[in-house]
Design brief:
heterodimer; A: two-stranded antiparallel sheet; two-stranded parallel sheet; B: 113 residues; mainly alpha
């Protein structure tokens, strides 16, 4: 019985989404309760899976009992469990915030939200490349609708770009999968890893081409430098709870890169080709996003560029590739995701008390609840700039420590300068919102209780990640060590299957 | 057959990308559709191009690989749904932005006023 529980993170949101879409005539309160309950259930399941994975156990589940490499397998290791709990925590915060009224501005908010969670959870759990593509598509489909939830000129315009760009990205994804399938004859990640390790001469070129195409697609989702121009406008236009959830979407790209890099292409010439690109793209992303942070004239755009800074930092960490670096970035990952999510929510609350000025960085009327909002803004700003008392500083310090040799020469100044830019921009924004705006008052847009609950739930991560820095960074290090030994996963996935001897048969026919 | 097949995929991809880079939403959607066809054909070929091979299991020593066929089917379904979605989105954008340009501008640069 208990081995089936690993499918719960996919099944709960799927069934929940169906129920929410079917009963869309039910009252708002009912749907809010159901959606929140589903998110709480996912947090609990993810916490349980985290405990299981934290004990060093890996769970594998063959869907329909079709064994690998023929059937689709779900696999849960430390990395998957970390991403699942992160998704669930972020989702709960966003849903709580949305229950304040954002969800009623369009139709089917909660149903689509759960669908997106299903796609995210599935992508984090699957052990099959094509299945990964399908879950990516589910996530994207739901995100298209969520992004344009409530409508409006700005959202539709940005949404059109977002949809078309991602459709082109999906086409590229299938091409990459086709190349890899043609060259290796399998789609199961573990099986592909085994065959890539044994590949010969002209296969190497094909596999490298396929792998680099995959990385391009994942970089588009993760918003790495030449492919990030869609992000600021999209995220700034999306409704606040949706933008907060989108903070994990860029990390989905990062997860996919980490997964294929560590499992499939580890210790092959392909990995070196990937790393060379990732390193410089990551650094360039940090540099340009830092400029964007300074240039932003709206708090939402500013936060979007802060998301990009964190993407660049994480990618540079991935490219470093050592166990220490991966461990450091996995410690930094939950912090930066949750804080960026919280910042979107805070921006929304600030905007709703400023009347027409919204979140633009201009003088406007005095905020109604300036002490409450100012306090939360301060915590989030300190956290996102990576200043000492909170987890951002620790994560960055760990990452800088992990860089060695000439890598240090590039990473240190860039990271520190980006932190400085974030600090300057956030203090400027804070001064405009809380000190320079003192005339008159708008007596509307009071922060409601669900909004406050959602933001505090996400903000609480900053002190908690510091207080429990030992266990968390221990878990991150253990995750990095587990990722460094893909052989264990491959042996477990393929070794368990009685069909292994058939798996050895190569498929006849000409490769394209 | 390989040459013909790759030529078809190449021409479809090139046309798709050219149209994708146009300024109006309609050519962009057609471009996406063409790109989708090219991708599906390409995916179809990854199992190897055979003549006289049975589709699944039949009177042939070397049946063709069924997996790409299943993948193409999935890709077609997703592509179909997405095309429908983009068409609706384009119509919505036309009414909200007041123009069928992807950036919502009223005319392309160089257009006669």
């Amino acid at each position: 019985m208990s081995q089936h529980l690993v499918t719960l993170p996919i099944l709960i949101p799927m069934i929940g989404a169906l129920a929410l879409l079917l009963f869309n005539q039910a009252s708002d309160t009912r749907r809010r309760q159901l959606s929140t309950a589903l998110c709480v259930a996912q947090v609990l399941v993810a916490a349980w899976l985290l405990a299981v994975a934290g004990g060093g156990q890996m769970l594998f589940y063959a869907l329909g009992n079709w064994h690998a490499p023929f059937g689709i397998v779900l696999m849960l290791d430390r990395l998957s469990a970390l991403m699942l709990i992160l998704t669930a925590v972020l989702a709960l915060g966003s849903v709580l915030f949305a229950c304040a009224g954002e969800d009623a501005r369009g139709t089917n908010f909660h149903g689509l939200f759960q669908l997106q969670l299903m796609g995210l959870n599935g992508a984090f759990l699957t052990g099959d490349m094509f299945n990964l593509f399908v879950f990516f598509e589910i996530t994207l489909l739901a995100s298209y609708a969520l992004m344009m939830h409530g409508g409006g000129k700005e959202r539709i315009g940005a949404g059109l770009h977002y949809v078309i760009l991602n459709l082109a990205g999906s086409a590229l994804f299938i091409v990459a999968l086709g190349v890899l399938y043609g060259a290796t004859g399998t789609l199961n990640m573990a099986d592909m890893a085994r065959r890539v390790a044994q590949m010969s001469g002209d296969q190497t070129a094909l596999v490298t081409a396929g792998a680099l195409l995959l990385i391009v697609v994942f970089s588009l989702k993760a918003a790495l430098l030449p492919l990030y121009f869609w992000l600021p406008r999209t995220y700034a236009a999306a409704p606040a709870p949706v933008a907060a959830l989108f903070a994990i979407m860029t990390k989905l790209g990062l997860y996919a890169i980490l997964r294929v890099q560590s499992l499939i292409f580890a210790d092959t010439p392909v990995a070196e080709a990937i790393i060379a690109w990732l390193w410089w793209a990551g650094l360039a992303t940090i540099a340009l996003a830092a400029v964007g942070v300074l240039a932003a004239r709206d708090l939402r755009t500013l936060v979007a560029y802060l998301v990009l800074v964190s993407v660049g930092t994480l990618m540079a960490g991935t490219a470093l590739g050592s166990i220490e670096a991966i461990g450091a970035l996995l410690y930094y990952l939950p912090h930066t995701t949750l804080i960026c999510g919280a910042l979107y929510l805070i921006a929304e609350m600030i905007g709703q008390q400023r009347g027409k000025a919204g979140t633009r960085l201009v003088r406007a009327r005095r905020l109604y609840q300036r002490h409450l909002l100012g306090g939360m803004f301060l915590v989030a700003a300190v956290a996102v700039a990576g200043l000492p008392p909170l987890a951002g500083a620790l994560g960055k310090a760990l990452l800088m420590q992990a860089a060695e040799g000439t890598a240090r020469l590039w990473l240190w100044p860039l990271l520190l300068l980006a932190g400085l830019c974030a600090l300057v921009a956030m203090s400027r924004a804070g001064s405009v919102f809380f000190w320079a705006s003192y005339k008159g008052e708008v007596d509307s847009g009071r922060v409601s209780r669900p909004q406050l609950a959602g933001v505090l739930w996400l903000l609480a991560s900053a002190p908690l990640l510091v207080a429990f820095a030992g266990p968390v960074s221990g878990y991150a290090q253990a995750t990095a060590e587990q990722l460094a030994e893909p052989q264990a996963v491959i042996a477990r996935v393929l070794g368990e299957s009685p069909a292994l001897q058939f798996g050895q048969l190569t498929i006849e026919g000409e490769s394209p | 057959m390989e040459a013909l097949f790759s030529l078809v995929v190449g021409v479809l991809t090139a046309s798709g990308i050219y149209l994708l880079l146009r300024g109006r939403t309609f050519p962009v959607i057609i471009g996406l559709a063409l790109l989708g066809y090219a991708v599906n054909l390409f995916l179809f070929s990854t199992g190897g191009l055979n003549t006289h091979a049975a589709a699944v299991i039949g009177e042939s020593i070397t049946p063709s690989d069924p997996l790409p066929q299943a993948l193409v089917l999935t890709a077609i379904v997703i592509g179909f749904a997405m095309t429908a979605f983009v068409v609706i989105l384009a119509i919505r954008a036309r009414s909200e932005l007041g123009s069928d340009h992807v950036d919502g501008q009223s005319g392309e640069a160089g257009d006669a006023k």
